[in-house]
Amino acid sequence: MPTVDMIGGLRVVIYPNDHRPAHVHVIGNDCEAVFKLNCPKGTPDLRENYNFPASDLSKIKAALTARTAHLCAEWSRIHGLP
Fold it and tell me: Which one-letter DSSP state was computed for residue 38?
């Protein structure tokens, strides 16, 4: 499971055999959240949350938003999509 970025000790993961639409899994502290990326220029949206408190989710979303271009490029690289 490729870790494509880190956010304050949390792993940002894109699974190679995962489905569309482009999304990332944020994993750490016994929690996981899935954010749809809305590539190429959209703001990430929370799709699923497993145990992250709301205050952490807002920080994660802000960090993902700042990295959207990089994460969309990583999704395309891993999945072989233009």
Answer: -
What does the domain layout of the chain look like in residue ranges? 3-79
The DSSP 8-state label assigned to residue 33 in this structure reads E
Residues in Cβ contact with 33 at an 8 Å cutoff, skipping those fewer than 6 apart: 25, 26, 46, 48, 49, 50, 52, 57, 60
The DSSP symbol for 70 reads: H
Write the pLDDT tens digit of every residue in 51-60.
999 999 999 9
pTM comes to 0.94
* SS3 of residue 54 by DSSP: helix
